[in-house]
Amino acid sequence: MYIPAQYKNENLDEVKEFVKKNSFGILVNQVKGRPWASHIPLELDVDKDGQDVLVGHISKANLQLKDFKGDQEVLCIFNGPHSYVSSSWYKEEEVPTWNYIAVHIYGKIVLMEDVDVLASLHKLVDKYEQDSANPLSLDNLSPSTMRQAKGIIGFKIVISDIQAAYKLSQGRQEDHPNIIQELKNKGCPGSSAIADHMNSKK
């Protein structure tokens, strides 16, 4: 992805934490010569060799599976908050812009054994059920319900490259206080989140 130098975030710990908190991503590869994308949870993890990996699964009916080849690099996209930024908030005349956070991760797919797929499903459900009033556990589901797991393929993506763009009005530090206030005034979650990220970078 094109990232001007001032917007590139090379703090891997921060970027990994972002991916963990924004793990509903987009998996992109080629299917019959055309780009194909699936919107799925892609959980950042570490494999038994200490290698950073993304873990996910898709339906066996998904045509994307047909081109899961060991030598093919795939792209995973993780979107964070974003917001329009009006140049009327600046002290000097300029064009308006957009602030955003986005991470692209490249790697190669390795298909998982059934036992590892089931373990990853338990881990996924436990992560997202922990804040529920009545947390569900896969251990409590009937065998007939759990048979649905036979309809998916699990995989891990061995990460080869991480690219992170944090566009937060860098280069306009003199305007930051007003930009942050105006973003908060908009009252929408994306704008407020961008304001918080700008605040944290002070």
Largest sheet properties: 7 strands, antiparallel
Run of helices and strands: HEEEEEEHHEHH
Task: Tell me roughly what share of residues is in helical segments.
Answer: 25-40%
Total strands: 7
Work out the strand percent. 35-45%
Give the termini distance in whole angstroms: 26 Å
**Structural class based on helices, strands and sheet pairing:** alpha+beta
- Indicate the radius of gyration in whole angstroms: 20 Å
Tertiary shape? globular
- SS element count, helices: 5
Largest sheet, spatial ordering of strands: 2-1-5-6-7-4-3
Low-confidence stretches: none
Overall pLDDT: 94
Sum up the structure in keywords.
202 residues; alpha+beta; seven-stranded antiparallel beta sheet; 5 helices; 7 strands; 26% helix; 36% strand; globular
Give your account of this protein's structure.
There is one protein chain. With 202 residues, the protein is an alpha+beta fold. It contains 5 helices and 7 strands, in the order αββββββααβαα. The protein has a 7-stranded antiparallel β-sheet. β3 (43-46) and β4 (52-59) form a beta hairpin. α4 (176-186) packs antiparallel against α5. The longest helix is centred in the middle third of the chain and has 16 residues, at 114-129. 20% of the residues are buried.
Fold blueprint:
Elements: H1 12-21, E1 24-31, E2 34-41, E3 43-46, E4 52-59, E5 73-85, E6 97-111, H2 114-129, H3 143-146, E7 152-167, H4 176-186, H5 189-200
Antiparallel strand pairs: 1-2, 1-5, 3-4, 4-7, 5-6, 6-7
Helix pairs in contact: 4-5
